UniProtKB/TrEMBL annotation:
Signal peptide: none
Superkingdom in the source lineage: Eukaryota
Cited Gene3D superfamilies: NAD(P)-binding Rossmann-like Domain, UDP-galactose 4-epimerase, domain 1
UniProt-recorded name of the protein: NmrA-like domain-containing protein
NmrA-like domain sequence ranges: 6-289
InterPro entries: NAD(P)-bd_dom_sf, NmrA-like, NmrA-type/Isoflavone_red_sf
Amino acid sequence: MASHTKHIVLLVGSTGKTGSSIVRALAKLPEKYVIKALVRRSSMDKPIVQEFRNLGVEIVPGDLAGDTQESLETKLNNVDIVINATIPVEDGNQNKLFLAAKNASVKRVVPSDFGPSAPPGAMKYQDTKLKIRQFIIENEIPYTFIQAGWLTSLLFPQSHSVVGNSPMGKQFYGSGKVKTAYTALERVGEFVARIIGDPRTLNQTVQAYDGEATLEEVWTIASKVTGENFDDYTRLSAEDIESTLRDGPDFLTALLFEYNRSALIRGDNTVENAVSLGALDARVLYPDYVPLGLEEVAKQVYGKN
Ligand SMILES: NC(=O)c1ccc[n+]([C@@H]2O[C@H](COP(=O)([O-])OP(=O)(O)OC[C@H]3O[C@@H](n4cnc5c(N)ncnc54)[C@H](OP(=O)(O)O)[C@@H]3O)[C@@H](O)[C@H]2O)c1
């Protein structure tokens, strides 16, 4: 480690859902972390950037697409840990960030994972993430890969009062009896804050999660908390999902259906499967972690607190 005792962490994608959860959690540990956030010039005026400044975060102007490897390297001078929480659609951007990190002697990089566990070939989006992991390993860059299961906010059905029909929100996928790991968004940051300062997780994949549940259990709790009956929502069988995927749907539908097939039909996203693929179980690493129960999360999701 560098001569200082605190870890200097630079976050890319800090203003997003996952990134902001991480910033807020790291900011609760000022004795452990100094936080820098790479923020695009076009986003400088967002209220969240002011919130970060108030939390003591140093804002570094930058753009993963526009910056060169060399300019990123300068911005990573003296940084110990780099976390990326952008949407990883173009791996070239992440690759250049991590090569810059290597040249700047960063001690650990965390690429943008934070999703469900799935083996190679289960879904294209995960394959993109796995390719980036492979790039990091091949280039001998110290890393931690963090999986978070399914974000609870996405697992619950939308309330009837929500206008619009987002593909996730009003559809029930599969038998409903397949277990899937989940984490509440606010807890992703809490896990990351524990994991990145832990020497046991260096060059490891870590499975973070609040719990595991079937879709049937999630929808039952949703009904209990909202008082709504969701039986009128569309039910999609495994064959419906396959035939939609065979028809070559648009990018977003393909992404969602592949996710659902992997997690809710194939059952890839369980802690047991993640561990069998080599991940460390975060709840074993951190036995003092108090998980958020599904009903508690449901109350948050539906504003019933
Ligand atoms: N477990 C799950 O169920 C789940 C759910 C959702 C996401 N995820 C994963 O979590 C990760 C982050 O997703 P998210 O939904 O949190 O992302 P998001 O909310 O869309 O945020 C994206 C972030 O990336 C920043 N960004 C975009 N382009 C950039 C660039 N060229 N240079 C620098 N920053 C840039 C955005 O900044 P601006 O403010 O400038 O736009 C924003 O801070 C992804 O890997 C995603 O797959 C997992």
